[in-house]
Amino acid sequence: MLHVFDPNNRSDRDLGTPPAIESGRRVALTIDGLDISVPEGTSVLRAAAIAGIQIPKLCATDNLEAFGSCRLCAVEIEGRRGLPASCTTPVAAGMNVTTQNARLAKLRRNVMELYISDHPLDCLTCSANGDCELQDMAGQVGLREVRYGYDGKHHLDADKDTSNPYFTFDASKCIVCSRCVRACEEVQGTFALTIDGRGFDSHVAASQNDAFMDSECVSCGACVQACPTATLMENSVIELGQPERSVVTTCAYCGVGCSFKAELKGNTVVRMVPYKNGQANHGHSCVKGRFAFGYATHPDRLTTPMIRDHIDEPWRPVSWDTALQFAADRIKAIQAKYGRNSVGGITSSRCTNEEAYLVQKLVRTAFGNNNTDTCARVCHSPTGYGLKQTLGESAGTQTFDSVMQADCILVIGANPTDAHPVFGSQLRRRLRQGAKLIVADPRAIDLLTTPHGGEGIHLPLRPGTNVALVNALTHVIVTEELEDRAFIAERCDASEYAAWNAFIRDERLSPEATESITGVPADRVREAARLYANADNGAIYYGLGVTEHSQGSTMVMGIANLALATGNIGREGVGVNPLRGQNNVQGSCDMGSFPHELPGYQHVAQDDSRQRFEVAWGVNIDHEPGLRIPNMFDAAIDGSFKGLYVQGEDIAQSDPNTQHVEQALSSLECLIVQDIFLNETAKYAHVLLPGSSFLEKDGTFTNAERRINRVRKVMPPLAGKADWEITQDLANALGYKMDYGHPEEIMAEIASLTPTFKNVTYQKLDELGSLQWPCNDEHPNGTPIMHEQDFPIGKGRFVVTDYVPTTERSNRRFPLLLTTGRILSQYNVGAQTRRTENQNWHEQDWFEIHPHDASERGINDGDWVGITSRSGDTVLQAKVSERMQPGVVYTTFHHPVSGANVITTDNSDWATNCPEYKVTAVQCEKVANPSAWQQRHRAQDKKQWGFLRAGVETESTVVK
Question: From the CB of residue 618, how many other CB atoms can be counted at a distance below 10 Å?
């Protein structure tokens, strides 16, 4: 297969067994007369592979621990009896190994003959033909005939399991090598597969001999990737055949930033294979990145620009030039009538760094204001504010790999196995190795039931009481003198620490005093605080359950206080780690998408920073911050904000208080939506610019660990333009000259203006695989661990974090507290995953309710339930679940008709306006009909899709 990318020949070939744990010592030995030296602990099989000597193998692969079952890798070792398996034999000083002779050849042929005697000989028509290790090994050992027939017992008539929409399990081709079972255990950590039966009756079973779709399998694809035959095979390969070429790129789902080889026939993606040299995922994946790529060629894709004068009119397909000029003329007319600040733009966290950079540049140059914002406003803006105040940088401190050195892991308001599943698998691996777990979450998340992972401490706090809980944890540490005094004295501001220390010691912050607030027993809080403080390495990972609160920024600062007080900053295995939601949330923030900050978090009011951009861009930049997204909505309703350019975000579904958002969008005179589908926001648009998927563009994404990864074009854009090209053309239509020939030129400009990106180049990214900013003269190859010696602000700053209860409280009318979150199979607003077979797992958003609350209201599992808040009401189907605590209910937000954000309120974080999605007081009751909003939504949806189809039908008359 042709590999498009591998500039340094970083081989992704299989070396048989994992690398040894580095001790610094090396061992010299001889293999087939070749003198070699390898790290101590290396297997003979791996040592031979490193030396270019290929020993046959079937059960061995280098992402799984050695198993030693297939016997193909047997070797002779001088002075030892028998023929040991090279995969399970570590090297030793002076060892003399023979991998090829007549004795070994005969053994291997006999072993292969036994495998083939119970295996279909349909190689020419097999879906794995050309990519089958069994086939390769038969050829490598020289097997030419099989003496055993099929007259006796065999497995050739075993049934196929086709229940999973993405892969088929053909038991007739299984050689019971256990690689799939071990991949499920060691890599994924689900333990969904096992070897059932003994001897000849041994077979791979999913859960309790269930169909794959009915089992605990999470469809991560690790078993498919590990399988050496066609037993587990992607349905896309079965249908399309083996791919011909591959391109290494980066996944466009969550903030883990997994690297993949997109494998293709022509321009058709056959499969996505996790890239083993991916520094964020190391060859692992989840169901979304591995299988849910079909949305990129879904029939719903927008492929032609369209315009209309009013949102109640059908769309008119037009050429690119006509659409862009129409948009530019509308924007100019609005500014002439309402003023320079009457328009703005929203960048996308699903687009590349280069594309986000161009949108905010367009707003600041062609629009002439700072009215630019991004979806991070509604998810992680408190992270940027809180970490900037305390640690001096608006990002997480560690690599994902750092968790493997953690001794105690505190997870707050995050559900990694659902929202960041590849990192969740790595975290579970560390728990199986003995690390301790503390989870602060209103729900009992899956991490707490990690197989073989020990018993974690669950702190089931009431929604909205995060700050009270983190203060209580830190109170215990300080009053019991568990803080790291040496770290505090050396690395932290003394006066601010003294003021904070006096505050945190206050008895009103103790676990006993706050128990009535948080609902968490005081003894459990004390146990968790001691466990974290006494660990050699304590790591904190948090998600939207921290930031999406009225005190989101306060909580982030409280987390930083906790890490500083215990000295858990600046080395492997510790740190403060926000788990970013979308693939490029970090990058969109880095690129200056906020109204008060230029790229690299340089404030618009800082003259020297702003003037550098003014010289480079050839314009004057406003020194006053522009409008945030909520301010844009309010101004639109008030009549002073009339034009909005939205790149790849669905604010009508994702932002809180949906009816308020819809009113704002309806008030605009020009809404320009650039996206790949007709999303909820696009239904209010006047200009539709068809965007491009991640498979259709070049650029970079920045993941949650500040890792900048290359995105490489896999196929041509369906609509003819990548997103960066559309933004550039719009700028030119508005009269501001942009003339980039490739995203690499955009990155060069970013590096010239952004100190943390100073040494970032495509060449260096290709050479090193990825870079973690800051990447400057001090750290030319990036900074995996932040704050090792000092902080960007000098000393770490402790901040007083008073607990201020949210104004959104339960009462007799609204006695339940609703909180929201994600689920594994769906992604964010669902526009991508709902157009794939992932719908089989989560075809709708469910309303989770504790049995006690359900019983009080006569609600049974599966009943339709009306949920009412102070903002609105909607109807969802009930799922009675003990994962909830009494008084707390839960839902996801992946399906627009669910209306989850119809009932969320306008409450937001005091510092950043991040919405308080996680605390909504509600009441619920059994109902028979959809809500009034849902009925209106369905009617509007039908009408707008009709307008689109009418436009598509006339598309052939348009010259693109």
Answer: 10
